[in-house]
Structure formats: C-alpha cells, structure tokens
Amino acid sequence: MTSYPPQFKADAVALYQSWPEATIRSVAAALGINPETLRSWVRAAGAGRPRGRRSQEPAQSPALLEAENAALRKKVRELEDERKILRKVVKYFAGEARW
Length: 99
Prior knowledge:
single chain, mainly alpha, Arc Repressor Mutant, subunit A, 2 domains, 69% helix, 0% strand
C-alpha cells in the first residue's frame, strides 16, 4: 500500500475541485493514482461537487488568467532560449570530440 504525503492529497483534491469538466477517474489518471484513492480523499475532505451540475464560471477572473498566460509565455521564451544555448553547447563539444 502506497502512503501519500498530506500535501499531495490536499493538492489532488484541490486539482479535482478546480477542474470542473474532469472526472475523478481522469484526475486520478493524470496524477498516476487509483481513482478510488482520490475518491476517498475527496469524500474525506468533504470536497465533492454537486451531481449533474458543473460550474461554468471560470475559477479566476479574466485579468488574472491573462496575467498568468503572459507569465507562462515569458517562461516558454526563456526555456526556448535555454534550449537553443544547450543545443549550441552540445554541437560545440561534439565537434571538439571528433578532433
């Protein structure tokens, strides 16, 4: 039997709550855990969703989502730049190894 840290359990329940279109099965699969395990955590936290009705409202305001998207785009650019540098380094050292 696998023991999960309390923070992981809380994060898993929070993820399920914040993802209105997802099922317990899909969230559990994304986290690599048994769906029944997640279901028991949700029940224990009293964090279930009403049956048959899912919230259509976004969890965050559009301004917050836009700010988050901007930050994520910036991070993507940084990671792409880092990848370019690493590729150049690999090419450089691969070229030196041939001599």
